[in-house]
Amino acid sequence: MADIAKMIEEIKGMTVLELNDLVKAIETEFGVSAAAMAVAAPAAGAAAAVEEKTEFDVILKSAGAEKIKVIKVVREITGLGLKEAKEIVDNAPKTIKEAIAKEAADEIAAKFKEVGAECEIK
Length: 122
Fold this sequence. Notes:
Helix content is 64%, strand content 15%. The longest helix is centred in the middle third of the chain and has 18 residues, at 34-51. The protein has a three-stranded antiparallel sheet, with helices on one face. It is rod-shaped. It contains six helices and three strands; from the N terminus they run H-H-H-E-H-H-E-H-E.
């Protein structure tokens, strides 16, 4: 272990050019590539970030055939007036709710599905 600590201290004292030469020498000696590891690490972090998503947006994609019922659902969910809710439905796709829990987003999507509207959770 003392040898490893000694090597780390030597590496800390190297210039950028010396470090570059060291990396190239290690790549040549062991037949590995430092670039492949640098690319793989962020990709693994991005996959973990996708799994940890806790906030979702509900987007009304289209009103379907029962436009009046969809307007009523929009009013119920958002608390908007009739005119504002109608504008949202007429101008779909529109975001209805942002940054809400998965359960709440699923409930809202189910309400839209009941009245024949197409909804998306992102």
